[in-house]
Amino acid sequence: MSTVVASGLVGELAHALDGPFHVLLPDAFTANLTALRDALADADVDGFVYYAKKANKAAVFVERAAAGGAGVDVASAAELREALGHGVRGEHLMVTGPAKDTVLLRLAVTHGATIAVDALDELDQVISLVLTGRERPARVLLRVLPDAQPHSRFGMSESELTTALKRCLEAGDAIRMEGFSFHLSGYALQPRADLAARLVEQCRKARGMGLEEADRVSIGGGLPVSYTDADSWHAFLGTQRPSHYHAEKAFRAGDFYPYHSPVAGPDALRALLATRPEGSGSTLAEVIREAGIELLLEPGRALLDQAGATVFRVQGVKDRDGYQLLTVDGTSLSLSEQWFNSEYLPDPQLVPHQQGSSAGVFPASVGAATCLESDMLTWRKIAFPHPPRVGDLLLYPNTAGYQMDSNESPFHDLPLPPKVVIDRVDQARPRWRFDRHFS
Predict the structure, then answer these.
(1) pLDDT (tens digit, 9 = 90+) per residue, 275-290?
(2) Each residue of 24-41: b (16+ CB within 10 Å) or e?
(3) Number of domains in the chain
(4) Which pTM value belongs to this model?
């Protein structure tokens, strides 16, 4: 983004679009995809990467996934249609989510997508669709309820899995049972390695029952992104208190996303593959290789690291006791972390509208252009290097993953911020276009 800002393009876009906007950098997505594949290759693990589309609605990331031969993880009929429309092959789709409706399941079967079956009644529905519609065999993974998270609403219990395997056998050619999957909250490596190894053994058992194509295990997403260095992160956690926020707002340290991770993205995948599952003398990579398993990944945030930013214009400045309160031309619905009783901690970059601002430390919090007292983009008093003024821009970095559009709404009839794609940032004068998202 530094190249884009230095080129002056951000200011020109703010003038032309006359409102907040998102910048998308698809080259970063492609680089992240390559890095994840390199991590699999370095561990000599057969794997396939699906982009978790829920992390960002933009079409360009689906287009890059398709161009790179990657898959896309979808959870609605609309997401599935859009993935197909932007070039993803049906067999490269992973359909997840609970209690899938009939339209989604029928589309998935028709196009040869893999369906992560979440419940017994869902499995019955898939079998019925194939048998009554004379469709091709349905490709399914059986989603497992994690022992470590027994209250999760995703996945089937041990007894339900036993029943599901029997029904897959009884369904004959209607079902192609290809393995197992799980959804595990959090970023700890050991529980993920333990469960993955357990599902490798489940694949062995399924093959022994006659389900010979059970050779895939999906570990979902859960690869962390590190937004800052360790010292800055731990210093923040150790010192933050209500006086650091507008209106003495209080946040619990445990509610923040872990903005620093010792290993992140492809390095987290390497660390996971090098982890020894409990009770095993082998690494997860060795367990997977020895059993002839294909490892499936469904990252969202990890593929979108550094792949976008969000820009607002300052349209009001108020002086408070020792700091300023800014109002920008958008809402925190375009910065989703605030809607989880948390705070997006990467500092926004101040892009002055005019040069010549005095240098120093100028604390300010950032509010939205709505009538809601709680609609704050940044409760923290950010130490800006220049005094913010009306017309200046605030650029929030690294917002592509789950931030910029997960909760967007045309509240107050304000238009949704458009998405601007910059395909090449290494040019002295970057060129841009609007994203081709259908809706």
Answers:
(1) 999 999 999 999 999 9
(2) bbbbbbbebbebbbebbe
(3) 2
(4) 0.95
